[in-house]
Amino acid sequence: MERKLNPETDKKKIEDVLRLLKLNDVDLSKLSEQQRKEMKDHKFWKTQPVPSFDEKIEEEGPIHSDKTPDDIPNEPLPMLPDFEWCTVDIEDEGQLENVFVLLNENYVEDRDAEFRFNYTKDFFKWALKCPGWKPEWNVGVRVKSTGKLVSFISAIPVDLRVRSKFLKSVEINFLCIHKQLRSKRLAPVLIKEITRRVNKENIWHALYTAGTVLPSPISTCRYTHRPLNWSKLCEVGFTALPEGKTNPQMVAQYTLPKGPLMKGFRPLELKDIDETLSLFNRYQERFDLVQLFSKEEFKHWFLGSTDSKVSTESEVIYSYVVENENGKIVDFVSFYSLPFTILNNAVYKNLGIGYLFYYASDADFTYTDRLNPEASEKLKKRLNSLVKDVLIIAKSNKMDVFNALTSQDNSLFLDDLKFGPGDGFLNFYLFNYRAFPVHGGITETKKYDVEKRSDVGIVML
Ligand SMILES: CCCCCCCCCCCCCC(=O)SCCNC(=O)CCNC(=O)[C@H](O)C(C)(C)COP(=O)(O)OP(=O)(O)OC[C@H]1O[C@@H](n2cnc3c(N)ncnc32)[C@H](O)[C@@H]1OP(=O)(O)O
Known about the structure:
The protein is of the alpha+beta class. It is built from 9 helices and 19 strands. The structure holds tetradecanoyl-COA. Tetradecanoyl-COA binds near residues 184, 185 and 186.
């Protein structure tokens, strides 16, 4: 977390945790072109409808558009002997538990096995059961003899806008193979199977993210981390005391007020949905890569449930609005919670982690150019207040660190609100679609790009 570290052991530990935070086990994004796998060595990816690394994109659009669901096989590819395909019924508590046990034990872990993601049933209900979800898009592989779930991949439906074009699409997430089944080329088989099932529904595009560099990212964002409970982060070995600093100085540096400061800041409610969605839609127009939300989807993603005001997922998603003195909603902000389990610590069992999700503000709506200096100043001021209030709420909900990417307009507040750059990068990919690069909010030297900000307006879990 802290970058001015001295002792080698602490440095190693921080590197491990930052690797963990970027949701992937290998980060190749910092390797030079020569060190990366070349296109010809991507035995699987070179056969897929994705742009190759050196491809010069002349025009944006689908790579193939000539297939129909009837051209797609009705049966999956053969599975390894002793294993079998399954559709994981996520409405069955037992099967849902199989998924989170698989992910908690195999998704990502630091080298010393001290921290692990603590996925919960509520998190998966929120992440996988969005409007339009399809049971058969939760694909698993089980051991034939025992029924043990050893691999998983999921898709959810999304409508995307890439610049001015609209794409009916899916988001692919939670690809996971049990540690003992790694490097057996099972991932390509899972990817082909989810592709088959999605194609059968006449959908031909997908959005996915990975820390790993694959052919070929449409954008790359950087992870950033804002300590909320510095003492605890230090005690559990998550961060170390920088040289020349004292503990009280570090605590003081990250101290936050007790409660939100913005006038009119309050939780998003069912009655606000229409107004907030229209504010949000207008705000999102500025970005080149966005997810479009129907009213039902907006309710699901920001209130946690479509059929009840008080949902069980309320511990997962936190959404707020700012209502001005005329009762108009002028800002919206949200974040989600995904904690770590701390293994082998006598005092602390959990590390609370908040992730910045979507937000919107009308602060610069009167300007046609969002990068106009006056417009930027107005938005910067508003976003600083808005995200500061969110940090306060996250802290009061026992979160110890708060993460954000360099996407959206985040570079306007990252430095001011003391988000430190992580060493993780997240690459965004489109399947079966060629697109010009979308700016990820980092400069050539990987610093926050305060001037251009980012054109990525999508946040994936
Ligand atoms: C129209 C609908 C389309 C739908 C599909 C759209 C595409 C969706 C794509 C999926 C989006 C997922 C989004 C997320 O969930 S990203 C999160 C990924 N999960 C993890 O990092 C969890 C821990 N790791 C694991 O479980 C395994 O290491 C995984 C499963 C990642 C690889 O297992 P394993 O280590 O045992 O490897 P293998 O021998 O079976 O296979 C090797 C091949 O797999 C390629 N590989 C490795 N990692 C990834 C990766 N993260 N995305 C895509 N491809 C990946 C690799 O380059 C090589 O291909 P090639 O280099 O030779 O060509």
